[in-house]
Amino acid sequence: MQMRNALKLSILLVLAAMAAGSAAAQDLAPVVRVEGLGRGLVRLNEPWQFHLGDDPHWAEPDSNTAPGQAGWEAIKPDRPWGAQGHFAAHGFAWYRLRLNITPVANLRSQIQLLIPGITDAYEVYWNGSLVGRYGTLSPHPSWPAVYQPQWFTLPSPYTGTLAIRVWQGPLGSSSSGIVGGFSEAPILGDADSISGYVGIWNYEFLKGTLFANALNLLYLIVGIAGIALWSRRRNERLLLWFSIFAVCPAIWGSVYTMRIPVSSQFAQFLVQPLWQLRNVALWFLLIEMLHLGNKRHLAQWARILALVSVTAAFLDGCLIYIPAAWLSSTAGAWADGILTVIIEPCDLYLLVLAIFGFRQKLDSVRWVVAVSASLSQLGAVIAATAGQGQRFTHWTLAQRLYSPLFHIGPVSLSVLQVLDLMVFSSIVYAVYRFVFEQQTRKALLEQELESARELQRVLIPEKPPELAGYTISSAYHPALEVGGDFFQVLPLEGEQAGSCLVILGDVSGKGLRAAMAVSLIVGAVRTLAENYSSPAEILAGLSRRLHGRLQGGFTTCLAMRLDSDGGCTLASAGHPAPYLNGKEIELPGALPLGIDPSIDYEETAMKFKPGDRCTLYTDGLLEARADSGEIFSFERLQRLLSEAHDADTASRAAVQFGQEDDITVLTLTRSA
Question: How far apart are CA 215 and CA 16, in angstroms?
């Protein structure tokens, strides 16, 4: 009886074990068989087992991952999990597939797995062993900015479980929610076939980005040319803003089209401020091109909004680096949205500038720039705004604006790209026109300056005339192309025959404006010298003629009449006193010319002896300044005029010390 009971119990235990084994076999996921691998590629299009969350044991081949078991389900590998019932899900997830691979006979290459498309970072396991990874997973996730198909070698045996652990980063405020995991089914193949597939993929990528790379190169070349021009013309800020406008897209575009090896996080951080900096550069380009610089409130608001928007864009880029422990994904999305709400209204300021520009008389080129810039900025703002929260609103406008509008060969262009090209092309042409006009104006100005130099060479003699009984030397060094110093040595006729007038002066300021005043003064001096021989009368006549004609400026002047017997009569209109044998001649003070039309000037008489040397100069000699800031000073001037026996020696000493103003020196030495 006992034996009978024991036998029954044994039979029951065997049957229970068989039933459990049968049930376990039914719980395991189906096996995908791949026969004859080694003659090409096989896409693993069959449903994969999928589970949100993370458990390291899910890499093991004996894990129960059959659909319906412990939260596992079957999904297709040809589209993201966000499109298969897991909308806007992020974080960890696992894919699993049981494989039975039979390679062809005598296969010499390895069996490889290729992942053509997946987001964001992942690890690949074969029979529980890690065979490779792409990027790094949480808690410090990172992955390349541009995805490239990755391949991994599967070790033998070729029967087992393939498990892929995926990390999908937190979604931004503009994410559609249809993201996560595979976007294309993985591929199995021998190493040669996988290498061929990758080569074709690289070729197609290069062909697809050819236009973008050419455009980025054009942006870069034009931007560098603009910077080079601006470095030589710092006052032409239009070139600076144009260079920033052109260089920014060349930088961020190259990150993606040239597959520069930077992380996706860094690329996102880089794009945000560069994008806004380019928008700001476009504002200031319009201010320069539409001649709105005289409207100070527009420029002031542009600076304020530029600071606010670029700062917000920088902070928006920094969000990607904030650890999840500090900022949850929900809070991060809200922060992203709030910063975008700050940035996008600022971008509409370009429309304000365009409206003010339309009110002015613009040529056709500037009209095109204003219209194309307005449309481009408006399109960008609409796309960015429509994209915010699109996984909640389900708006598709942003996707339509970014999607291809038409194709030219392998090149596809969206609405926003067409508008951006219009802006860039119109600005390039407008800047070319601007530079050409500036060159034309510069050439005309150079011609005017050359005419002014020719006039000064006629009015101010390079070599003074010979004067009986005197040795004369002169030196003239304008601070700019032309200057405001002048001197004349005019022989007198009639009753004063044998005598001569020496006139030396300095118009306030320098450059072309002062040179034009010099031409007026020299003409007046020659006219007065025909009727007057008295230095005081000549200065009084000059003051009357110059009153109200110097546009708020003034002119200092020294008039001297030299007689054949050595007699000398001087009168000064606020000019530095001359030196006689190294000592300053005392003269009464007086107002410069052109201030008081009714002024009378005093004369001082003296007699030069043979060997006496009189030196006349303008204040540029006294005001020479060294690099250290030290001024030439009266002490140096007195020592110089005591030692220097000719005008050229005295003037060169001041120029070498540090010239800041026009310098003129005239020496008169009594020879007999």
Answer: 72
Kindly state the DSSP code that residue 293 receives in the 8-state scheme: T
Cβ atoms of 567 and 469 within 8 Å: the answer is: no
CA 573 to chain CA centroid, Å, is: 53
Phi/psi-derived region of residue 138, left when phi > 0, alpha when psi is between -120 and 50, beta in every other case? beta
Backbone angles phi, psi at 366, to 5 degrees: -70, -30
Across 369-386, b (16+ Cβ under 10 Å) vs e yields: bbbbbbbbbbbbbebbbb
Of residues 474, 555, 473, 476, the one with CA closest to residue 508: 555
Residue 221 has which token pair? 């070349």
| C-alpha count within 13 angstroms, C-beta hemisphere, residue 408 | 7
Q: How far apart are CA 181 and CA 122, in angstroms?
A: 9
Written as six digits, the tokens of 448 are: 């005017």
Q: What is the DSSP letter of 592?
A: P
Helix (H) / strand (E) containing 112 = strand 111-115
Q: Model confidence over 525-561: pLDDT tens digits?
A: 888 988 888 999 999 999 998 888 877 788 999 999 9
pLDDT confidence bin for 3, thresholds 50/70/90: very low
Q: What integer pLDDT is reported at residue 19 of this predicted model?
A: 40
Distance, in Å, from the CA atom of 219 to the CA atom of 427, rounded to the nearest integer, reads 12
Non-local (6+) Cβ contacts of 60 within 8 A are 128, 161
3-state secondary structure of 43: strand
Exposed / middle / buried, residue 237 (Cβ in 10 Å: 0-12, 13-18, 19+): middle
DSSP-derived pairing of the beta strands 111-115 and 187-190: antiparallel
Specify whether the CB–CB gap between 224 and 244 falls below 8 A.
no
Q: What is the pLDDT of residue 462?
A: 64
Instruction: Give me the pLDDT at residue 340, please.
Output: 85
Nearest Cα residue to 287 out of 343, 349, 333, 227: 349
Higher pLDDT, residue 308 or 509: 308
Alpha helix (H) residue ranges in 388-511? 390-393, 397-402, 415-459
CA atoms within 13 A on the CB side of 531: 9
Q: Kindly list the distances between the CA atom of residue 222 and the CA atoms of 213, 256, 289, in Å, as whole numbers in the listed order.
A: 14, 20, 18
Print the SS3 string covering 242-290.
Answer: HHHHHHHHHHHHHHHHCCCCCEHHHHHHHHHHHHHHHHHHHHHHHHHHC
